[in-house]
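Lab notes, practical 5.
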Amino acid sequence: MRLTDCLLCLSYFVCASLTAASLSVNMTDTQGVALGDTVVELTPVTASAMPPKAPQHYEMRQENRVFSPFVLAVPQGAKVDFPNLDRTRHHVYSFSPAKQFELKLYVGQAEAPILFDQPGLVAIGCNIHDYMQAFIYVAKSPYFASSDDNGLASITDLPTGEYTITLWHPWQNVQPQPTNIIINESSHAVTLTLDVNRQNKPSSPPSGFGASFNASSHAGQHAK
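Output from the prediction step:
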């Protein structure tokens, strides 16, 4: 019986590897310019249950008085650390319905990571530095990625089948309607477009007494 079970498991994993596919997404704005920080989430249309995402280590750093990365995509159930690499103390918080939490003034590593157990969008801020802002997108599906500065996002180990594509970007003018795609080959590539109002990401202001924040330091506050 044990040998049979092992053979069945081996057969399953061989079949899964043969049917696994990948999707490469090229994200652009309506002008055709590469669009980074776009979350691409694929949800199986017919699957009754989705396998959990393998545990990984996620971080939302505070470095040079900004959050990094600006957009972090994690699976539902992920734990995220918020290390403060600055000498300045930060007070990290979120009032978002998907996750409300508070990490009071600290330097270095917070006492414990934050569990993001509900899918949705979580806006992150600092109670000391108003210009500091970032976003954590908690994906319900295990198949997701965020685009890099070149607008490229890659999702691997996709079982073949039909998926619904959901997109999100902090500067989007409206929430785009989900679209469907059929993954039926080992490699697939698409170009997708989002209507966004481009802004500057939050950046560290000049240090020193009397330094003022410019208008661009509030980028992303109108995310939808």
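Observations recorded by the TA: Residues 58 and 80 are 5 Å apart (CA to CA). The helical segments are 2-19.
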